[in-house]
């Protein structure tokens, strides 16, 4: 339950210095968010692809979050000498928090803070009466649009075709998002990100092992002025 969940009252009081100690003298804030990051495969892949960008995973399960924290700490130590630990060495730009992203995202993120937001293999909640528990819904889309800057990209992928249709339908219907085709993103240099989206997460690897299909859909945050 959420009773034991602590969360900041507003983004300004979200303490980033413990998460990104090498960046504590900067005013940089996370620019990419992986919602329901699971075991952290995407975070680890993006950390070295975007060494100057702060990346945040949000995960609701306590033990899974702890696992990802330990994984990041180990990589930080493995990749640099002790005196380098305070510098902006590898994996210093990636962190994870335990959070209910469906309830508290605007407590962590300022308006327009994000340029990328990821929903990779979200829980499908198959039964119709459970659909309101899905991480993509009209109410939540308003929050995602708020924290994403115009031009920012939403990445979704799932192996559940019905969920793909659901996410696609809701995102297409929302005025602040427009579909962006995979080819277009690849032509704009987003290929490595798309490859990570497809293959870097633990769930994505599992789907591969089972020869499952993957449905990708990406959306661009439009400019408010167009409304
Ligand atoms: N994205 C990861 C991957 O591709 O391997 C994990 C996919 S897993 C099927 C979905 C994850 O979302 C789980 O780890 C679950 O605990 C997390 N989750 C579900 N609801 C959440 C919420 N409201 N806030 C944060 N995480 C959530």
Automatic annotation (TrEMBL):
EC number: 2.1.1.33
Identification of the protein by name: tRNA (guanine-N(7)-)-methyltransferase
Protein origin, superkingdom: Eukaryota
Role description: Catalyzes the formation of N(7)-methylguanine at position 46 (m7G46) in tRNA.
An annotated GO cellular component: nucleus
Protein family membership: Belongs to the class I-like SAM-binding methyltransferase superfamily. TrmB family.
Catalytic activity: guanosine(46) in tRNA + S-adenosyl-L-methionine = N(7)-methylguanosine(46) in tRNA + S-adenosyl-L-homocysteine
Organism: Phellinidium pouzarii
Lineage summary: Eukaryota, Fungi, Dikarya, Basidiomycota, Agaricomycotina
Enzyme class: transferase
Pathway: tRNA modification; N(7)-methylguanine-tRNA biosynthesis
GO molecular function, one term: tRNA (guanine(46)-N7)-methyltransferase activity
PANTHER family on file: 3-DEOXY-D-MANNO-OCTULOSONIC-ACID TRANSFERASE/TRNA GUANINE-N 7 - -METHYLTRANSFERASE (PTHR23417), TRNA (GUANINE-N(7)-)-METHYLTRANSFERASE (PTHR23417:SF16)
């Amino acid at each position: 339950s959420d009773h034991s969940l602590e969360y900041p009252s507003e983004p300004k009081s979200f303490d980033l210095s413990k998460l990104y100690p090498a960046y504590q003298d900067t005013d940089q804030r996370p620019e990419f968010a992986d919602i329901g990051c699971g075991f952290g495969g995407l975070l680890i892949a993006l950390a070295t692809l975007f060494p100057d960008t702060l990346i945040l995973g949000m995960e609701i399960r306590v033990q899974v979050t702890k696992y990802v924290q330990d994984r990041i700490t180990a990589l930080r130590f493995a990749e640099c000498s002790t005196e380098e630990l305070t510098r902006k060495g590898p994996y210093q730009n990636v962190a994870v928090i335990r959070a209910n992203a469906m309830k508290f995202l605007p407590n962590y993120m300022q308006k327009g803070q994000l340029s990328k937001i990821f929903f990779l293999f979200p829980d499908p909640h198959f039964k119709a009466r459970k659909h309101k528990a899905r991480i993509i819904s009209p109410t939540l889309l308003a929050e995602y649009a708020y924290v994403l800057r115009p031009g920012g990209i939403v990445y979704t992928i799932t192996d559940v075709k019905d969920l793909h249709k659901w996410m696609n339908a809701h995102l297409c219907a929302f005025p602040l998002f427009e579909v962006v085709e995979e080819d277009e993103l690849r032509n704009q240099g987003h290929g490595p990100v798309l490859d990570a989206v497809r293959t870097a997460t633990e769930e994505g690897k599992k789907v591969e092992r089972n020869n499952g299909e993957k449905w990708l859909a990406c959306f661009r945050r439009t400019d408010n002025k167009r409304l």
